[in-house]
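quick q for whoever's on today - can somebody do inverse folding on this one?? i tried earlier but teh output was garbage lol. tokens:
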């Protein structure tokens, strides 16, 4: 039996990096992280990188922002060097990706319908990245690890 693949959502990445104001579930996430590392593979979607960087840049306290940016940058370098516990998803953001994003991928709802329901474009892009990953790898057990209830509904 194949081990599941977990797409790491921004809510998880922020907790793992211990970003101030976004890591209230850190203890639980770190425990889950250890278990998921042993039982599956971890993938970092592009949207999680962008959203995390935005959260870091918007921290009010300059010292906290600097420290968070350092941690974030170090984590990204570990990914690029192949030393992180997850790998970056290599999905291309091209015309096909944008068409899938606007149509909502395989969710059955369009980008507009998701927005009306409070699901943001970042979350929807993670769903589309997962869809493309499944097609590219032939793996079917590809899940989303998130603390966001709306995104988890599609996991």
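ok took a stab at it. sequence:
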């Amino acid at each position: 039996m194949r081990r599941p693949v977990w797409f790491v959502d921004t809510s998880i990445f922020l907790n793992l990096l211990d970003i101030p104001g976004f890591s209230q579930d850190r203890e639980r996430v770190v425990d889950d992280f250890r278990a998921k590392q042993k039982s599956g593979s971890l993938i970092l979607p592009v949207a999680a990188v962008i959203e995390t960087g935005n959260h870091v840049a918007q921290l009010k306290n300059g010292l906290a922002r600097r420290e968070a940016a350092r941690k974030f940058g170090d984590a990204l370098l570990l990914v690029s060097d192949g030393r992180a516990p997850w790998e970056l998803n290599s999905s291309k953001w091209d015309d096909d990706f944008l068409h899938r994003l606007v149509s909502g991928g395989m969710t059955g709802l369009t980008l507009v319908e998701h927005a009306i329901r409070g699901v943001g474009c970042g979350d929807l892009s993670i769903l589309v990245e997962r869809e493309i990953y499944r097609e590219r790898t032939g793996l079917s057990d590809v899940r989303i690890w998130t603390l966001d209830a709306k995104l988890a509904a599609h996991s």
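fwiw Residues 62-80 form the longest helix (19 residues). also Residues 5-149 form a domain with the Rossmann fold fold (CATH 3.40.50.1010). so keep that in mind when u check it
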